[in-house]
Design a protein that fits this description.
This protein is an alpha+beta fold and 97 residues long. It has three helices and five strands; from the N terminus they run ααβββββα.
């Protein structure tokens, strides 16, 4: 399984739509920044058939240091959650192994 970087994604998109790669990379970066800003504000991002990005608050819990075995309190934190959309699920499930 390969890892696709932002640069490789920008190359592919710029080839498909015929735009300069630098413009495509800037567009991708702006998209990421705007999505991040909205998630920081607590907003939900919905991309039809692809998925939904939301933030959720995880409560505090008691953890364990695996090295020493001592218990430690893990503070509450805010995390990003992704729920895949219907079409994305279907396409991923129907890929031959």
């Amino acid at each position: 399984m390969a890892t696709i970087t932002k640069r490789e994604l920008a190359e592919t998109i710029s080839q498909k739509i015929g735009s300069p790669q630098i413009v495509t990379k800037q567009t991708i970066q702006l998209f990421i920044e705007l999505c991040t800003e909205e998630l920081v504000k607590g907003n939900r991002l919905e991309f039809r058939d692809f998925g939904i990005l939301t933030t959720v608050e995880r409560g505090p819990k008691i953890g364990r240091n695996p090295k020493t075995g001592a218990t430690v309190e893990v503070p509450p934190k805010r995390v990003v959650r992704f729920k895949s959309g219907r079409l994305l699920k279907e396409k991923v499930q129907n890929v031959p192994s």
